[in-house]
Design a protein that fits this description.
Blueprint lengths: L1 E5 L3 E6 L5 E6 L20 E2 L10 E4 L2 E4 L12 E6 L2 E7 L2 H4 L6 E10 L2 E10 L5 E3 L2 E2 L2 E3 L12 E4 L6 E2 L13 E2 L7 E3 L10 E4 L4 E5 L7 E4 L5 E5 L8 E7 L19 E3 L4 E10 L1
Antiparallel strand pairs: 1-2, 2-3, 4-12, 5-6, 7-8, 8-9, 9-10, 10-24, 11-23, 13-22, 14-17, 14-19, 15-16, 15-18, 18-21, 19-20, 20-24, 21-22
């Protein structure tokens, strides 16, 4: 089912399947969200939980047992219930079940909220550990945005401009997209700008740490933009389908990193995973601003 929230600036559609954004339109009818062409990438904006990225051999261990887990976890495959809704806000709920416990043996509640504030979509996470054991998880967003945004422009006319100068580091990945260092400096033009071109993604995603906590997709030749702000996410993934001329870019706030190459990770000791004590509550939020 598709739910809609709306204000004077934006109309946003979200699927109850995985709480995935389906559309973000401005008042003039312009669609900013990638629309899921399977030629390049069939998804639009999946929510990543309880893992970000790939596990070596598609599995992990927890409490001494081995469990399967697909890339980016299982949240996107779950049908969510609506906990609360209004014209400008909707909250989805996922409760652990026999189905989730078969691959992730913990009891939890996940509340996912989309809220409109003028021309901004605020995406909020609330994870409640209902188990008497520690909850170990990763969490993140994966929204894709159309490029170009302006009529008459092309992909290479756009850039990603960070909100302040920084010296980010690119996480070292193997050719099969697992951690395999070394991490290397990732210089930006004037410390803030990354010009876009399709060959940036020939080796799959770029994942940064130490970057500014807000980035804008824009062109000096155009007027439309998208700003993604992630004040409490330590990593940022940038991606489109490798070795193609895909007309979109994903800007992905992540809390953690994928598996190490050739290591079947024990979730309890995973180097970048989040840990939430029994009955604990984890909250985080990021946002998408359109102009």
């Amino acid at each position: 089912m598709i739910d809609t929230i709306q204000n004077e600036a934006l109309t946003v559609k979200i699927s109850t399947l995985g709480g995935e954004l389906q559309s973000i339109c401005t008042a003039d009818g312009k669609e900013y969200l990638w629309q899921g062409d399977p030629t390049y990438w069939a998804d639009r904006s999946p929510i990543l939980f309880p893992y970000v990225g790939r596990f070596t051999n598609g599995c992990y261990t927890l409490d001494g047992e081995t469990y399967p887990m697909k890339i980016h976890g299982f949240f996107s495959e779950q049908e969510l219930s609506v906990a609360e809704s209004s014209d400008q806000s909707i909250t989805f709920l996922l409760q652990s079940s026999d189905k989730t416990r078969a691959i992730y043996p913990r009891d939890f509640v996940f509340l996912l909220q989309y809220r409109l504030e003028a021309n901004t979509v605020v995406v909020s996470f609330r994870v409640i550990n209902q188990d008497d054991r520690e909850l170990h998880f990763g969490i993140g967003g994966h929204p894709g945005f159309q490029v170009p945004l302006d009529e008459g422009l092309k992909f290479d006319d756009y850039q990603l401009e960070f909100s302040e100068p920084a010296e980010p580091v690119s996480i070292g990945f193997s050719p099969t997209c697992y951690l395999e260092g070394p991490d290397t400096p990732f210089p930006l033009e004037d410390g803030i700008r990354l010009p876009l071109h399709h060959h940036l993604f020939d080796h799959d995603a770029i994942v940064l740490k130490g970057m500014a906590r807000s980035v804008t997709l824009k062109s000096p030749k155009g007027s439309r933009f998208v700003t993604v702000t992630y004040p409490n996410m330590d990593y940022l993934g940038l991606w489109h389908c490798p070795r193609t001329e895909a007309p979109y870019v994903c800007i992905e706030p992540w809390s953690s990193l994928p598996s190490r190459q050739d290591v079947v990770e024990a979730l309890e000791t995973h180097p970048s995973i989040l840990h939430l004590g029994p009955k604990g509550v984890y909250t985080n939020a990021w946002s998408i601003t359109l102009g």
